[in-house]
């Protein structure tokens, strides 16, 4: 039986044959010839007679003799001109792709994970002496005083750390050290305090602003039940979750507010920062709102602005202002700005004018003002812009 098909019919049904198409030889029993003319291409397809079935079902039907009597042309591809052609060998591009393909069994997941794990444990490359010297001179922190290192590590305050050194409870590289001014490097030197080794890595610098409530004193003593530092217990308990692998900081207040005064106070573990902010030479202005018992006259404001003597020094405020009356506050309020920051300075100014203070609150230090949404007893972390507003020059 012979069948003649035009090229136009085959073009619609065999358009996918532009890619190499493989026909399995064992199922192909056709003889395909192609005759081309200038007008059209035709494929003359002659089907081979059906193969007789063997009498014995167990006999294999595909013997080598049977394959030799059949004609197999498995590749129908397009040539460079876009015409369909028949060929008995695969296209050259397929042979090149097979030759360039990667061979070998894929690596199992366990081997891949093992290689990745081994890659993580590879030792760091060794640097030359010149590179290490350059790093130590330009990037490594210089040695610091022993008492300062102990205070920064959270052992105790600097004064208490000096006492520990004098008592012989601190060893440096196996020897007892009795000089607090000894220069040490915690990353290199082995320091023990009361038998406990000091961590090589010092805690990071922490800067916090607290809205202090009444009844809390600005002391970091462990025996103080109502210390300002006790308001940070939850913050320190969750320190390991937020800062994994870093030692806890030892917090203390910058300056002081008496037990009856509320408002803004800075808490940190940076002694240099605290020294610069609290020192009188910084001349940072501090703004207070004093709620007065009784009426306030002009002579009272004049008396406050003239100043008074505090600790043997005549202190004069920068500004004194009577605030307008508010409907929800029955008592009179006075805004007082000072820069000396001496102990009980604002209270002494008001007392010298013949007035009594009902409540006193600090609302500003330098250019940083207490946020109105920061409720009593809560704190916030200070950003770099806040530190600059406080006059910090790192």
Helix-strand blueprint:
Blueprint lengths: L1 E5 H7 L16 E7 L4 E7 L16 H5 L6 E4 L5 E4 L4 H9 L8 H12 L8 H10 L5 E2 H7 L5 H9 L3 E3 L2 E2 L6 E2 L6 E3 L2 E2 L9 E6 L20 H5 L1 H4 L9 E3 L6 E8 L2 H8 L7 E8 L4 H9 L1 E3 L2 E3 L3 E4 L9 E7 L6 H8 L3 E10 L2 E2 L9 E3 L2 H6 L5
Parallel strand pairs: 14-20
Antiparallel strand pairs: 1-3, 2-3, 4-5, 6-9, 7-8, 7-10, 10-11, 12-14, 12-22, 13-14, 15-19, 15-20, 16-17, 18-19, 20-21
Helix pairs in contact: 6-7
The gyration radius over C-alpha positions equals 45 Å
Helix fraction?
Answer: 25-40%
Main β-sheet, in a few words?
Answer: 9 strands, mixed
Contiguous runs where pLDDT drops below 50 for at least 5 residues: 1-40
- In whole angstroms, the N-to-C terminal distance is 98 Å
The DSSP helix count reads 13
User: Which of globular, elongated, flat, extended, rod-shaped describes the shape?
Assistant: elongated
Integer average pLDDT: 77
- Give the total of beta strands: 22
Please indicate the percent range of residues in DSSP E strands (runs of 2 or more): 15-25%
SS-derived structural category: alpha+beta
Structure, explained:
The protein is of the alpha+beta class and 394 residues long. Helices cover 25% and strands 25% of the residues. It has 13 helices and 22 strands. The chain has helices spanning 7-13, 64-68, 92-100, 109-120, 129-138, 146-152, 158-166, 233-237, 239-242, 271-278, 298-306, 345-352, 384-389; strands spanning 2-6, 30-36, 41-47, 75-78, 84-87, 144-145, 170-172, 175-176, 183-184, 191-193, 196-197, 207-212, 252-254, 261-268, 286-293, 308-310, 313-315, 319-322, 332-338, 356-365, 368-369, 379-381. The strands form six sheets. Strands 12, 13, 14, 15, 18, 19, 20, 21 and 22 form a nine-stranded mixed β-sheet that branches. Strand 20 and strand 21 form a beta hairpin. Residues 1-40 have low confidence and may be disordered.
């Amino acid at each position: 039986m012979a069948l003649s098909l035009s090229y136009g019919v085959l073009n619609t049904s065999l358009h996918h044959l532009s890619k190499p198409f493989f026909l399995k030889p064992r199922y192909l029993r056709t003889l395909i010839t192609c005759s081309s003319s200038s007008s059209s291409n035709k494929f003359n397809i002659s089907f081979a007679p059906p193969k007789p079935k063997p009498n014995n079902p167990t006999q294999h039907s595909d013997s080598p003799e049977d394959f030799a009597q059949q004609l197999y042309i498995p590749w129908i591809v397009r040539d460079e001109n876009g015409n369909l052609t028949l060929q008995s060998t695969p296209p050259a591009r397929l042979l090149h792709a097979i030759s360039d393909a990667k061979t070998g069994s894929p690596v199992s997941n366990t081997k891949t994970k093992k290689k990745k794990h081994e890659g993580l444990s590879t030792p760091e490359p060794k640097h030359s002496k010149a590179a290490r010297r350059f790093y130590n001179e330009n990037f490594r922190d210089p040695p610091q005083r022993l008492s300062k290192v102990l205070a920064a590590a959270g052992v105790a305050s600097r004064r208490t750390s000096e006492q520990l050194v004098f008592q012989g409870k601190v060893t440096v590289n196996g020897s007892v050290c009795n000089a607090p001014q000894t220069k040490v490097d915690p990353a290199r030197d082995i320091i023990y305090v009361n038998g406990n080794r000091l961590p090589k890595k010092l805690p990071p610098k922490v800067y916090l602003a607290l809205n202090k409530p009444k009844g809390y004193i600005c002391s970091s003593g462990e025996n103080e039940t109502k210390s300002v530092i006790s308001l940070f217990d939850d913050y320190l308990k969750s320190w390991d979750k937020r800062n994994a692998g870093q030692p806890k900081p030892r917090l203390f207040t910058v300056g002081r507010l008496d037990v009856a005064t509320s408002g803004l106070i800075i808490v940190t573990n940076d002694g240099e920062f605290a020294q610069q902010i609290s020192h009188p030479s910084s001349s940072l202005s501090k703004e207070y709102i004093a709620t007065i018992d009784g009426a306030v006259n002009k002579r009272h404001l004049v008396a406050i602005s003239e100043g008074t003597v505090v600790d043997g020094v005549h202190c004069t405020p920068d500004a004194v202002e009577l605030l307008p009356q508010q409907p929800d506050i029955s008592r009179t309020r006075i805004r007082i700005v000072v820069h000396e920051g001496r102990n009980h300075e604002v209270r002494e100014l008001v007392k010298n004018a013949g007035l009594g203070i009902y409540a006193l609150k600090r609302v500003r230090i330098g250019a940083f003002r207490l946020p109105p949404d920061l409720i009593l007893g809560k704190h916030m972390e200070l950003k770099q812009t806040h530190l600059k507003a406080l006059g910090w020059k790192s």
